Amino acid sequence: MKSLTENIADSLLKLDISKPLLVTTKTSFDAHFKKLISDIPYVRFSDYQSNPLLEDVLRGQEVFIQNKCDGLISLGGGSAMDMAKMIALKASQFDIQLRDTLDTTKKLKLYSHLAVPTTAGSGSETTQFAVVYIDGQKHSVDHPSLRPNKCILEPQLLEYLPQHQVAYSGLDALCQAIESHWSRRSNEQSRAKSSKAIEFLWTSLLGAYHKESPALKKVQEGSHLAGQAINITRTTAPHALSYPLTSYFGFPHGQAVSLSLLYFMNINLHSDKKDYYESKEQTVTLINDIIAHTGCQSFSEFSDEFKRLCANMKTTIAQLNLSTEKKQDILKKINLARLSNNPVKINEQHIMDFLNVI
Ligand SMILES: [Fe+2]
Predict the structure, then answer these.
(1) Per-residue pLDDT reduced to its tens digit, 123-168
(2) Helical H runs in 210-275?
(3) Is the entire prediction scored with pTM above 0.90?
(4) Where in the chain is the domain with CATH 1.20.1090.10?
(5) How far is ligand 1, taken at its centre, from the CA of residue 253, in Å?
(6) Looking at residue 109, what is its pLDDT?
(7) 321 CA distance to ligand 1 middle (Å)
(8) CATH 3.30.230.10 applies to domain 162-357
(9) pLDDT at site 137
(10) Residue 278 C-alpha to ligand 1 middle, in angstroms?
(11) What are the distances in angstroms from CA 127 to CA 57, 91, 223, 249?
(12) Which residues surround ligand 1, an ion (CB under 5 A)?
């Protein structure tokens, strides 16, 4: 079997990259990954936050240009891969502003990007979008050309992950798969991916948390499939609400998303017929499908099992008791595009009801 260095070297050759910018987190790179890719010539860039800012992207673009790099490797989690996508975009297409909506019908020629995920969660190695915070607000940069040209899935890399990160990124992947399945944009192709992802993640997440090798491999495959599914459908209400929760309280993304999953699942399952964008029957069928993929018999069993999984991975939070001002602020910062993917029309009262009980 080929080593990681050999795999990366082969991929760089295929992508015609001779001087890559390596986007990676400094601490984990120095501690674990540096020795694994010792023979690859690269310029390292680690000067970015875990929820990347526009300023971080511009710094990366400068390093890329100053060093005359000709492609990118991302080695890390969602933030490293998102950073590499946006640096590739800014270094290749100077005039594009990340806060603008990109014309997805126009093909963009970008520097090649090889993604090597070291977490299993975002599925960013196979998606065409990246998240950046501009003036405290979350923006999703979305274009088919942002999708990494190639990725290497090496489950061994996950063994270095701290347990809480396995939990948070795994929950993100599970929520992405579930949201994709009930999304208004889901189709046969996306549901084939999300169904498998739900099965893989549901059965393996706890084992991966305890660092069992076969489970880590399954969770990596599940996250990748969930990424492929949301690349088609995008996410829905739990993700829409997660971004202000992350920017206000610093909750890890996967935790912020999982906080409202059951709340919205209940709404999507039990609302009045008139509150669905399309047919209630179709959504109920899809949610029953999700529940069946986990081996549970009912929403209430699923709900108990999901809470148990979160508790077993120590991801539950104490009561937040939000002030009225904070609730109003959160409401203003919700991603409306993601809300409109949700099968039930979500209004302010829905969100307030949730914020009143967390
Ligand atoms: Fe996510």
Answers:
(1) 999 999 998 988 877 788 999 999 999 999 999 999 999 999 999 9
(2) 213-233, 237-249, 253-259, 261-270
(3) yes
(4) 162-357
(5) 7
(6) 93
(7) 25
(8) no
(9) 79
(10) 25
(11) 18, 19, 11, 26
(12) 172
